[in-house]
Amino acid sequence: MNNKVDYQLELDQIRAICGYDLMALALVEPAEYHYVIKWKYASGNLNERFRGIVLQSGRGVAGMVFKTGKPFMFSSVHDDVPQDALFNYPIIRTEQLTSIGAVPVWNDTRVAGVLLGGFRDEQRVTRQSVQQLLELTRRGIGELNGKEFLLN
Questions:
Q1: Could you give the domains of the chain?
Q2: CB of 120 within 8 A of CB of 97?
Q3: HSE value, Cβ hemisphere, 13 Å, CA-based, for 29
Q4: Could you count the other beta carbons within 10 Å of the beta carbon of residue 68?
Q5: Whether the Cβ atoms of residue 44 and residue 15 lie closer than 8 Å to each other
Q6: β-strands 110-119, 72-74: how paired?
Q7: Stretch 27-54: mean pLDDT
Q8: How far apart are the first and last CA of the chain?
Q9: Phi then psi for 34, rounded to 5 degrees?
Q10: Contact 95, 45 (CB under 8 A)
Q11: What is the pTM of this model?
């Protein structure tokens, strides 16, 4: 399979459809004994520092979504995250986000990535906007087919 998938173009399109300030995609990579999650692509990013964030399963926004396979949301970072706990969420700090929603991206019954949408201003992520992200990921992103369950 030599087809080059343009994840960047897909993120740009999803960001335009949903109206987020930032849209980012983290992908799971095998490590020696565990999986690590890295933010690989972003649209609307302030800088390239997101690329240096490496998380273990269960750590940070992407790590929690990867581990649980469930959506995650902070409608207000200021209200939902104690100031001394912000270091646990490096994507929020590096991209100066005030509200986020993140959903798993499935591929053949496994979580293979995490899609995050965030705002930097007074706009807030809602349950409906997280549901919209879920529906978009179920259609697949790039080579990730969005299939949580395979029917025999």
A1: 7-115+126-138 (3.30.450.40)
A2: yes
A3: 12
A4: 13
A5: yes
A6: unpaired
A7: 88
A8: 24
A9: -140, 175
A10: yes
A11: 0.91
